[in-house]
Specification:
Mean pLDDT: 84
Strand content: 15-25%
Helix content: 40-55%
Low-confidence stretches: 135-139
Oligomer: single chain
Number of helices: 29
Structural class: alpha/beta
Number of strands: 32
Largest sheet: 8 strands, mixed, barrel
Length: 892
């Protein structure tokens, strides 16, 4: 039969592992949780080996105490004992060996070493058993003593000694049994005395416990008489104590509906009949309805060793306060449930010790799920959180559970059943144990998607242009500020800012309407987006002004390439609501070639200055900022100020340059030219201020003054020389063409000065016609309807499109001086002039050659049949008196 091994271990896991290893080796195993249970096993079974787990031993006794108890048992003295411990318990192992342990085993177990150690211990046991058996071998007769043969003297002595040995051993056995019997009697006497003492101590302990209980305890005998009542029972029942026992005739207990209980329905009475009462609730009767107490009772029958009922015990607990609290809690929970239902929030609860979560139906509905479609694992929540928000949620929740922050509230996106992410605001509060650890946490989840979308829209509106969708000035300045700060912190790639301002945008607005103007801005924004890189910032600063922030440039002047790309985009017309609109832009560039910039406003100031410099250079171009431009900007500002003062002080006046018939060199008309008599600078050339007047809009009141003065002067000349046919050419700026009062004011001047309408010839440039398109055509048609002649100025320098010569009511073409001045030097220019004259003649239009300054030019123009000329060859621009003198001489 296999060896029988006793294992003493109170740890289920260790015990199960050891049993499995021993049984796999073919051993029989018995188990004890402590020393007392082990002794019981030893009293009834025979074992070959005892194993004691020191780590798993009873903490009040420990392994060496169990060892001491076992060695007091006679049968253990012949059984090998091995202790089991970890490598860190060597001192404890040594002490156990001193107390008689035969060997030890170390954890964790190695199956091969365990088998070898167990085998060695079992072999040692077998050897000991063999050694003890040797003295018990009986003495026998010599083998040579045959039956029926008289023994010799030696045989007799041998037999005698054998008999004496057997007698001695029997006496020793009897003596041993007597001593054992005496020891057992003494032990039983001591045990009885100890039991009596223990019973007395137990009674005292039980009485102390009962008295210390806050619950009322009532013990009765089989007749229903109280045999023990603790202090809490006296306090709870007072003088009605007997009315809770079966001896009462007026029970003090009522059911929860307030109906008095029958005597046989009292908990103690039910227990005397052998039944149990568990947590039944009663009302304790009182004469004052406000002092009625609610109690909970539990009762059990008391039985003797034969199972007969000898009494009953009942425990009563006053639950009035807890019942009222429970009612208040239920009411609060109902109110909370109604509140949560009204707010539409989802509720969740996380039991941290078990790792389970409970989600309310509303919580699941918020994500588009049915109640049964979401389980109770935390992954149902966290796995649905947007990957970009998951770490933030985890960090916030962990910080709260570690009490690093005082509250838990976080916003995140979570996946809806339809595949969209919804924004949620989550709040929670934890319940903590006495050690300060969170046991569970409850909270709510609010859908804030609409709020977030509104917030994003507000943010977008705050930092984006509502018309074009580009970032606005505030956002652009913020981004530029970050770039400047980064550049000043250390080495970083160059950056640049481009300011782009549309040329003559106001004219487009005024002539085609603001709706078309808005569409043009949107179309320009889309084109500009094509010219910048993904990392660049494109903004609309306001009106018709845009800005580009170029970051991480390979070198500073790479910004020039971007500016050239932008200008190229403006070469094609914009198709807007049936209109082909041409537009151009002036671009100013500020480069970060040094660290002079400290704020975004400094960069924009320099880029703006460069942009105005580009405008003054002729528009539709770019300019890179240079510090000297500040001087020009200041000069421009001063000119603008002086222009406004000049208008107020009537500092502007008109001079007149004759237009002559080339065949006779006789004056047929004049061109009215603007001059400015500056109080400090003297006569200022129009080249210095016309562009600024055009940009600021001051050209409109100045142009009105010129038109009025030219009409007045023409009227004076007509009165002085009524026999002569004279015309007056007056320049119209692009802004004047967009002036809605231009036609009405012109008609009023014709009437006021009684002029022939066809004597008034208004000059416009090709560029103005192209820029204003149909709007310019309408104005020109209205002027022509008055009888006013329309003249194209500087023909050949603009678009020179034949289509507008057919579309618009043009009567005269003025060949630009740049062609006339080279007519005797360049065959190409000669042919251009010849072609223009031929074209005008075929269209029935008159031709005026501007800039005629030499006799040679005059002869060539005559040879080409050019009818009229204008230039220094005939006269400079003249004061009115000088021009009158010429007319007077020609008339004589």
């Amino acid at each position: 039969m296999p060896p029988h091994i006793l294992v003493i271990d109170d740890d289920d896991d260790n015990r199960a592992l050891l049993i499995r290893l021993l049984q796999s080796q073919g051993q029989r195993v018995a188990v004890a949780a402590d020393g007392q249970e082990a002794l019981e096993h030893l009293s009834h079974q025979v074992f070959s080996l005892i194993l004691i787990d020191l780590d798993g031993a009873d903490p009040d006794v420990r392994g060496f105490e169990i060892l001491r108890q076992l060695h007091q048992h006679a049968t253990v003295r012949n059984i090998p004992v091995a202790v089991i411990a970890g490598a860190s318990d060597l001192d404890l192992i040594a002490r156990c060996i001193e107390l008689g342990a035969d060997d030890y085993l170390l954890k964790p177990f190695n199956e091969v070493l365990l088998r070898a150690r167990i085998q060695a211990l079992l072999e040692r046991k077998a050897w000991r058993d063999h050694q003890r058996a040797l003295p018990e071998e009986p003495l026998r007769m010599p083998a040579g003593a045959a039956a029926g043969v008289a023994p010799s003297a030696g045989d007799l002595w041998f037999a005698l000694l054998s008999a004496l040995g057997r007698a001695w051993r029997e006496q020793r056995r009897i003596t041993t049994r007597l001593r054992a019997l005496e020891a057992r009697i003494a032990e039983r006497s001591a045990t009885a005395e100890h039991a009596a003492l223990a019973l007395r101590q137990q009674t005292i302990t039980l009485h102390t416990i009962l008295e210390s209980l806050s619950d009322a305890v009532v013990v009765i005998d089989r007749e229903g008489n109280p045999v023990h009542v603790n202090r809490a029972a006296h306090t709870l029942f007072g003088d009605r104590l007997l009315d809770v026992t079966p001896r009462t005739t007026a029970p003090a207990l009522l059911d929860t509906d307030g109906v008095p209980c029958a005597t046989d329905q009292l908990p103690l009475a039910i227990a005397l009949h052998g039944m149990e009462v568990d947590n039944s609730e009663f009302l304790l009767a009182s004469t004052d309805p406000d002092t009625v107490r609610r109690i909970r009772g539990t009762a059990r029958p008391l039985r003797d060793s034969n199972g007969d009922i000898i009494g009953a015990v009942a425990i009563f607990r006053d639950i009035t306060a807890s019942f009222q609290m429970a009612q208040a809690l239920r009411a609060s929970e109902e109110r909370y449930a109604l509140t949560v239902q009204a707010t539409g929030d989802g509720v969740w609860e996380w039991e941290l010790r078990t790792g389970t979560m409970t989600f309310s139906r509303r919580w699941k509905e918020m994500l588009g799920f049915q109640d049964q479609e979401i389980g109770n694992h935390p992954s149902e929540w966290f796995d649905r959180v947007h990957p970009d928000d998951r770490d933030g949620l985890d960090a916030r929740l962990t910080a709260y559970l570690r009490r690093l922050i005082s509250s838990f509230e976080h916003e995140y996106r979570i996946l809806h059943h339809n595949g969209d992410y919804r924004w949620m605001r989550c709040r929670g509060i934890a319940v903590w144990d006495v050690d300060g650890n969170a046991t569970h946490i409850v909270g709510s989840q609010t859908d804030i998607t609409d709020h977030k979308l509104a917030e994003q829209r507000l943010w977008h509106h705050a930092f984006h242009d509502s018309l074009t969708g580009l970032v606005n000035r505030a956002r652009f300045m913020d981004r530029l500020g970050h770039v400047i700060a980064r550049a000043r912190r250390g080495a970083s790639p160059p950056y640049a800012v481009l300011i782009l301002d549309l040329d003559r945008f106001k004219l487009i607005n005024d002539s085609l309407g603001h709706l078309v103007g808005d569409h043009l801005l949107i179309a320009i924004a889309r084109r500009l987006e094509q010219s910048v890189r993904p990392g660049d910032t494109l903004a609309r600063l306001g009106g018709d002004e845009f800005a580009v922030l170029l970051e991480d440039l390979s070198e500073p002047h790479a910004a020039v390439n971007v500016a050239e790309r932008i200008l190229h985009l403006f070469e094609e017309p914009f198709h807007l609501n049936g209109h082909d609109v041409f537009s151009s832009a002036s671009i100013g560039i500020a480069l970060s070639d040094n660290l002079r910039y400290h704020s975004p406003s400094d960069v924009l100031r320099d880029a703006d200055t460069a942009m105005y410099h580009a405008k003054m250079e002729g528009r539709a171009r770019y300019a890179v900022f240079h510090p000297t431009m500040h001087d020009r900007a200041r000069l421009r500002l001063q000119i603008e100020i002086d222009l406004r003062r000049g208008i107020e002080r009537n500092e502007f006046f008109v001079v007149y340059q004759p237009i002559v018939e080339l065949s006779t060199q006789r004056t047929v008309g004049f061109e009215a030219l603007l001059r400015w008599r500056h109080p400090q600078r003297g006569i200022v050339s129009p080249a210095e201020f016309i562009a600024i007047a055009e940009e600021t809009g001051l050209i409109v009141p100045i142009g009105q003054m010129v038109l009025h003065e030219a009409c007045r002067q023409l009227s004076a000349w007509k009165q002085r020389h009524p026999e002569r046919t004279l015309s007056m050419n007056i320049n119209l700026s692009p802004r004047q063409i967009a002036d809605p009062d231009l036609v009405h004011r012109t008609a009023a001047l014709i009437d006021e000065y009684r002029l022939d309408a066809d004597a008034l010839r208004l000059e416009i440039t090709e560029t103005a016609i192209i820029e204003h398109g149909d709007a310019a055509g309408r104005v020109l048609q209205q002027l022509r309807a008055l009888g006013v002649q329309i003249c194209i100025d500087d023909f050949g320098t603009g678009y020179s499109s034949l289509s507008y010569l057919h579309r618009f009511p043009i009567a005269t073409i003025k060949i630009d001086r740049s062609f006339v001045s080279q007519i005797h030097r360049s065959h190409e220019n000669t042919e251009i002039v010849r072609s223009i004259i031929s074209l005008a003649r075929s269209l029935g239009m008159a031709v005026i050659a501007e800039g005629t300054e030499t006799e040679e030019q005059l002869l060539r123009l005559r040879s080409m049949s050019c009818a009229y000329g204008q230039g220094w060859l005939f006269a400079h621009a003249l004061e009115p008196a000088e021009a009158t003198a010429i007319l007077d001489r020609e008339t004589v």
